[in-house]
Amino acid sequence: MRASSWLCAGLAVVFGLFAGPGARAAGDNPVKIEYGDSSGDATIDHARDVLMNAKALEELQTFMSPLRWPASITIRADQCGGEHRDYDPATRTATICFEYVARILGVIGAQSGASDADKQEAAVGAIVESLLHETAYAIFDVYKVPIWGRVDDAADRLAALVMTQFGSDSARATVYGTIRFFAWSAHTWSGADFAGAQSPEAQRYFNFLCVAIGADPVEFAHVIDDGLMPPHRAARCLQFRQTEYEQIRKAFNLRIMPYVDPDALIKARAREW
Amino acid sequence: MRKVVAALALAALCGLPLAARADDDARANNVRLADVQGDNGYRPVKNKAYAGIRQDMINRKVLEEYVAFMSPLRLPKTLWVYADECEGGPGASPHYSPDQRAIVMCYQFIKLLSEVANGLVKYEAKNPNALPMRMNPKGFLAGAFAGVILHESGHALFDILDVPMFGREEDAADQMAFFIAEQFKPQVADLIVGALADLNGIFPDPPTDAANTSDPKYPKDADAQCQLDPFCAFSDEHGTSSQRMFNAVCVGYGSNPAHYAAWVKEGWLPKDRDCVGEYAILKHAFAVTVYPFIDQAKMKKVQAGNWFLATEMK
User: Minimal Cα distance from A156: which residue of B?
Assistant: First the structure.
């Protein structure tokens, strides 16, 4: 099965849950989307094709429709010259890089022992995570959200929160897919690697899983018994007076929820899968 | 031991008698010593190994100075502070207890800091250019103590002020310490931020090789096993030591690029890390969530004070 086919199906599953009947027409949508060109490198071109064929940005644009935006933003998929391009506050543009998508597909493709289902889940989860992560930067900027802690971790935590709000099926697919990709990344960090603003994949793995455990213990708490979350951290996910999930949820309710159309949100959450 | 005492303490405020401060503060919810049966916040020790540390802290009025330092805060609820021989043995760490609404400074940790300070010169001789800031042991000890209690103050403020927390709270508490430090004269900021950067520079990062599970010394405890695993070791809610060191350097540089230009030149930060932008985000967070609770007139007086001894500032 071509990567773009199952990615398309996977993204439709996830983002399709959110696309309510009130989604705006593209012209008056404050969330603009753009697909940049790619250079002719085969892996970069393929990453671009995967995103475009899956209509990834279109799905994300629809997903964002319950938000009331005080200013327009642009979500761009582009060739960046690297895996990451910083959010541009001057143009309010968040970018997902073809190079990063190419890496996702490359890491997943190299997992010879994994089932197709697991690979599909990892690709969908990681790409959805990346889209939500980059969009989070725009949200933080446009709504002037006070951010304590590293901003990249804040973007991850917001993405994890969003992933867990639209039903167990969606949460299962995106969270397990995301952490599977992080685990498969097998990137060893040492010394000056830690100087950057991004966090190690292994750290992000546990951050995501901890939020998910707190959001839906029935679905995710088994990972503690399975040894995927050590006891020390597990306590913060499930037992603390304020779990990590409750912490991010409270922050979201205080600083971002006021800008969400509550009726549109209910319709989005009520869609059946 | 007196040298340790001197190095531990924060210098007295200039021109403000303690008695006057106590009267003003008694009417407000702010930071206060948790006195029990007249111990003035310095709990008795059970292990005599910590008796000297405790006495030195008492002699130097470390906690009283901290309370005075934090006096510009006008909190909705009182924040308590005390020193104790904490549960957990020699490795016990200072912490904020939300149940007590108290910062607990553990004698064990002060002892550890003293040992690190005493070994600093040897460490730097063996590992030249391994740490961001050259510090004398007294300065390191005083700065590290101040930095750690400000980190715990961060946790306390996040709790008491119900601060929305999008990022990881341990990184946020570090940021609170760095940010507060950078609101003071560069020499004061250097001592705190430099000490925190160096302290984290000394401690190791997660291992890169798998542990030998056949080793008879391989621990039985799941959390201890996790710390030896190259993947699981990243599960800690704290950043890695190097991450925390680089975060300190980044906030410092972002707050005052000219003063800390050497850090970029010496390669302590990647050129593409936007530390000025990161500092602006941090400043916005502080302005929105904490600054409204600060008495600005008192804050200016505290900012103007000399908080460290001359021997520590060298």
Answer: B167
Q: Which residue of A has its CA nearest to B249?
A: A195
The pLDDT tens digits along chain B (314 residues) read 544 444 444 433 333 333 334 444 444 679 999 999 999 999 999 999 999 999 989 988 889 999 999 999 999 999 999 999 999 999 899 999 999 999 999 999 999 999 999 898 888 888 888 899 888 888 999 999 999 999 999 999 999 999 999 999 999 999 999 999 999 999 999 999 999 999 999 999 999 999 999 999 999 999 999 999 999 999 999 999 999 999 999 999 999 999 999 998 899 988 889 999 999 999 999 999 999 999 999 999 999 988 888 888 87
In chain B, residues with a C-beta closer than 8 Å to the C-beta of A190 are 205, 208
B264 touches chain A (CB under 8 A): no
The pTM is what?
0.91
Chain-chain contact of B270 with A195 (C-beta, under 8 angstroms): yes
Interface size A-B, in CB pairs within 8 Å, comes to: 136
Residue-range domain boundaries for chain B: 2-205+240-313
> Contacts of residue B205 in chain A, CB cutoff 8 Å?
189-191, 194
- Burial tier of A218 (Cβ tally within 10 Å: 0-12, 13-18, 19+): exposed
Q: Do A230 and B232 touch (CB under 8 A)?
A: yes
With an 8 Å Cβ cutoff, is B130 touching chain A? Answer: no
Predicted ipTM beyond 0.95: no
